UniProtKB/TrEMBL annotation:
One of its GO terms (cellular component) is nucleus. Transmembrane segments: none annotated. This is Jumonji domain containing 8. Pfam families: Cupin_8.
């Protein structure tokens, strides 16, 4: 990393762990445990040890979800789905074997005016799935998230078990993605939905509709985390949490949110519209 980047990060360098050293035997176990997506050439980010989103377990009932969260606040629900079969199909080797020659639509990681590029999935995985460059703007960062060809990828999505709770009058639409560590989507809002991590960890930052966050629409979430987040007074801090495989985050309608992949991550959202 260039010296100037370290200066820019200042005391926030501890967010980054660069090129984690692994023994040869450790490599094999490590890669198997992460579906082959997280390797020692990928940068990994440390996780904050606090979560200000309430966590609930699978004992949460539908009526509790509607009354306490659906229209008012986010919640992380643990163990509400069992997607072990879906996860087994989302390893690096299996996705490349099944979909490597299919085109995927990449979007730029900025808030507005997305530029889109079609590339073969294998090219994306082998050449473009890189850690976030600190110097790159959101408009220069390509991100695989959301523009899925449901005809071609339908056999995979049929194996996904979405969260069971629906808001009356809505139906679910899937958005599947894979992204490098340090990447993410800057602050934006839309209708309600769920997000589930299949491999990796994803950190979320959320604000209620009435509180517009301070951010630049063309800066990456990582740049915001390093340049803006440390200087926010406590009352202006977002609600935040890191979700792991086996957890589902629900966010209500029109809540501002930004995401940051702490590892090379495989994830799927269910938008309720």
């Amino acid at each position: 990393m260039a010296e100037g980047c370290w200066r820019q990060m200042g005391s926030w360098w501890q967010f980054l762990l660069l090129y984690i050293p692994l023994s040869l035997s450790g490599d094999l176990d490590y890669l198997e445990g992460n579906g082959g997506w997280l390797t020692n050439k990928y940068l990994a980010l440390m996780e904050e040890d606090h979560c200000t989103v309430e966590r609930r377990d699978a004992s949460l009932t539908y009526s509790q979800f509607i009354d306490q969260y659906a229209f008012s606040r986010p919640v992380v629900i643990q163990g509400i789905t069992d997607n072990s079969e879906f996860q087994a199909l989302c390893t690096r080797n299996k996705l490349l074997a099944e979909f490597g020659d299919r085109l995927v639509c990449l979007s730029t990681a900025n808030t507005y005016s997305y530029h889109k590029v079609d590339v073969p999935f294998q090219e994306y995985v082998e050449h473009l799935l890189e850690p976030q460059d600190l110097a790159s703007l959101g408009s220069e960062t390509l991100y695989f998230f959301g523009d899925n060809n449901f005809t071609e990828w339908g056999s995979l999505f049929q194996k996904y078990m979405p969260p069971p709770f629906r808001i009356p009058g809505t139906s679910g639409a899937y958005s599947f993605g894979i992204a490098g560590s340090g990447s993410g989507v800057p602050f934006h809002w839309h209708g309600p939905g769920y997000s589930e991590v299949i491999f990796g960890r994803k950190r979320w930052f959320l604000y209620p509709p009435e509180k517009t966050p301070e951010f630049h629409p063309n800066k990456t979430t990582l740049a915001w985390l390093l340049d803006t987040y440390p200087f926010l007074p406590p009352e202006d801090r977002p609600v935040e949490c890191t979700i792991h495989p086996g957890e589902v985050l629900y966010f209500p309608d029109r809540w501002w949110h930004a995401t940051l992949n702490l590892d090379t991550s495989v994830f799927i959202s269910t938008f309720l519209g």
